Amino acid sequence: MKLFISLIFAISFAPLALCQNIDMYLGTFTDGDSKGIYKLQFDTIQGTLSNLKLIAKAESPSFLAFSPDRKFLYATCRDSNGIISAYKIKDNDSLELINSVDSHGASPCHVAINDRGNKLAVSNYTGGTMALFDINSDGSLTEALQVFKQSTDIEPSHAHSAHFINNDLFVADLGRNSVFQYEKSDVSDGYKLKTESIVSMQTGAGPRHFTFTKDHKFFYIINELNSSVTVAKNTKDGFKLIEHQSTLDDEFKGESYCADIHLSPNEQYLYGSNRGENSIVVFKRQLHNGRLKKIQTISVEGDWPRNFSIDPTGNFLLVGNRRTNNISVFSINKRNGKLKFLNSFNAPSPVCLLF
Predict the structure, then answer these.
(1) Least confident of 7-21, 44-58, 136-150, 330-344
(2) 81/249 Cα distance (integer angstroms)
(3) Rounded distance, CA 175 to CA 211, Å?
(4) Which of the chain's ends, N or C, has fewer CB atoms near its CB within 10 Å?
């Protein structure tokens, strides 16, 4: 009798289990067919995308980020001056522009928000600056609280990404070939420089993006110019360099430039994208010391994979291929971390995928 009831229960709720469409937001470059920010549906059972819809017109909203409560969305927009825009997420599949402010640098390419949702940092690639903003309770942005100019007379800065971690702010600077660390100021609401380089980078590496373990013990920095990952350990005495690892297949001989990097939800695997080789590299992590072992290099089934994302279930990895206007979907084998190509979905100039 218990078995019969269990079967009836399972059958009755099967349709609910299969109905697993979730939202995915898409940032784009608008130098082609794209018009701005799009929204799609992703089926977390089948691994398929559908229902591409323009939800906000904007000029090259190339990077997107949610507020912690997911009520607001922030986008870098590459207009003639460089702006950062704040949107309210509406229930009717649209975004309502709250305000836009000067990013205080050209070509803003990354935005980060702290855990409290009251501070925002934008990285300006061409301008070489990182700007800090307050976020008001209605989601709007104030004018810049601080603007950090990291260039020197010898080395121009190309700030590429940032993350708030506890009371510190870290910034990957491709031009200065370093990851800066700022700490909360004792005398103001802003930040002050702690170190210009958390670890020594290889010459010409070009830090672009970075990720870190949940305990903030290990940092993984993906380097655009020499196609490598730098591993650093956060200790009580500061950061310690662990190793540098190539992201390219040993047989690849052409030009390639890294873009994005993500840890698997269980932190056992690390993924990185290569533009040129047009691949995703998969590393197995040694949990005790953070070291990496390359276990797979797989084609992205497209050209120029600028950004990729792992869906909330941890079962799929999606790659935006800018030059071929498609998003490739891969399944993730959770037993060994390896990827398998499933399907491709057409989308205009996809450069940021946000769940």
Answers:
(1) 7-21
(2) 39
(3) 19
(4) N
